[in-house]
């Protein structure tokens, strides 16, 4: 079995003079920005593009454009817009639903607290934590982090006894000002227009919320964290901004050995049989014994179709073409195929599809899951598919 114990920038341009943009001046602008932003390769790309654009412009307009293009990459994870006269911050990358993962070599935390519950017992059970996620990059807004609870006193309830380690979501970043008005989070005065920016009880938005938090300036080296289920969470709303040093890892998802198929029952057993190889053993029930099916795995890297005969093992049913299979008389199909781990490593979400060749539109698809590989330890896990 698995061994998991290893353990806006707001750029305000005043009425600038109109300097002559000779070559020396252009280089001065680029060098100044490079010194400040050299760690961001996207900014370097913008500098290269501007080499060709800036020569056709002059004065403050060129400087303004250069600054704007240079800073844009910093905020690609977030958006800022104005709607009904209200400035809003959006986050299009953070998913509202929890991630289902099958992991090997990551820390597993048994999280039984409901502070992250959005109505589906979210992040309840075995939570997968990457303790090295922030070794080379800083946390970002929307991340769920595993952290050590700081010492604090809370006059309203002195009986609070939180766990030594907990999980919650980053809502405020270092240097920002955060406040909550009528259950809505505001960052530097802008409305945080995200699913985690407003009070909800188990995923349902609270109307006429009376939750208030006076403006807090988040110090450098600190983050403001909140649970998704505010009324059940002990977080920065109680103990204040959290020191970076207390963040111990990033939550990748929930280790879940039950991933349902649509309209059918079955399971996939995933076995890391040896270093570099992974065996997918697919079992499906309730299929039409008179139809033929293909079995395929799909992820961000493309897909893999089970077959031909020499590459698969069949425990129930039979192969009737290069990549088509027919269930047995009971409608059961059990097929396994071994593949290199690289087909799933760092490829994102995975789905298993079973498609009828006779009814083209009939496709049975699993809910997405993800395989995360931390070490080369052997892993033997069963994922059950239930309707």
UniProtKB/TrEMBL annotation:
Principal location listed in the UniProt entry: membrane
Gene3D superfamilies reported in the protein's UniProt record: Umud Fragment, subunit A
UniProt-listed Pfam families: Peptidase_S26
Entry coiled-coil feature ranges: none
NCBIfam families: sigpep_I_bact
PANTHER family recorded: CHLOROPLAST PROCESSING PEPTIDASE, SIGNAL PEPTIDASE I
Protein name: Signal peptidase I
Organism of this sequence: Neobacillus novalis
Gene giving rise to this polypeptide: lepB
